[in-house]
Amino acid sequence: MNVEEGTLRHGLPYRALGTGDEPLVVLRWFTDNHTNPEGWERNVELKQLAPLAERYRVYAVNRAPGMAKGTTMEQIAEQHAEALTEKFGGPVHILGTSSGGSVALQLAADHPQVFRRMVLAMAGHTMGDEARAAQLKYAEACEAGRRALHHTARISFKSAALAKVVAPLMWLVDPFVRPKEPSDMVAFVRAEAAYDVRDRLGEIRVPTLVIAGGQDPACPPEVCRRTADGMPDAELVVYEKAGHIGTFNNPQFPKDVLAFLGGGSPGRG
Fold this sequence. Notes:
Blueprint: E1 4-7, E2 13-17, E3 23-27, H1 39-53, E4 57-61, H2 73-88, E5 92-97, H3 99-110, E6 115-121, H4 129-143, H5 153-156, H6 160-177, H7 183-193, E7 208-213, H8 221-230, E8 234-239, H9 244-249, H10 252-261
Parallel strand pairs: 3-4, 3-5, 5-6, 6-7, 7-8
Antiparallel strand pairs: 1-2, 2-4
Helix pairs in contact: 2-3, 4-7
Keywords: Hydrolase
Domain AB hydrolase-1: 36-251
Protein name: Alpha/beta fold hydrolase
């Protein structure tokens, strides 16, 4: 798939794949490390992005390293705007997934000139209450050197019963996957926790597709609906049976994204 890795301005890491002439920037979901994913996570990402890479040169981008305490989402968006402008020299399609969608929407509010079209997946004008609380608990536990992964169980699974079963297993494996230096992840979590652009949605005129999971506890569909309703040129698609991860993995997802970016109408998965 012609895979390439590198860094953009401010040290934003990216992984590019596909042979299309037109770029599509994918802002990654929440990760505990700013680097490009490796191992099985790399394989999963390449598989997920492969359908989009059949038409576009896809750039999966993560946050900058060394994020300082007190960094705001506005500052994160500014870094992205500068990096994307330097790399591409003009507007590009941007797909923001989960936390990457938070960055994308702040970017659209502050720097709309970097966009052609925008897709927000499992993301809205602010975080869902459960996701905000879970990420803060996770970040604070990591910062204190305590077991942390189990705090994310409820937002990782659409079934509360399954999350309750899996949480103890996540507690057990935590020491093997916990970030060794969590400070920049903690800074990002606190920036996203404070993020809310609901009062600015009417200003965002970037053509936008919002994709929600009907059973997503991390970004509930009502948050996505308020986001789409508040924007002058946005439409909403809800995958009624999908949870958070299931939304991105839904077979309809790449079809809807490609249809929208091509100027057509997405389906109603």
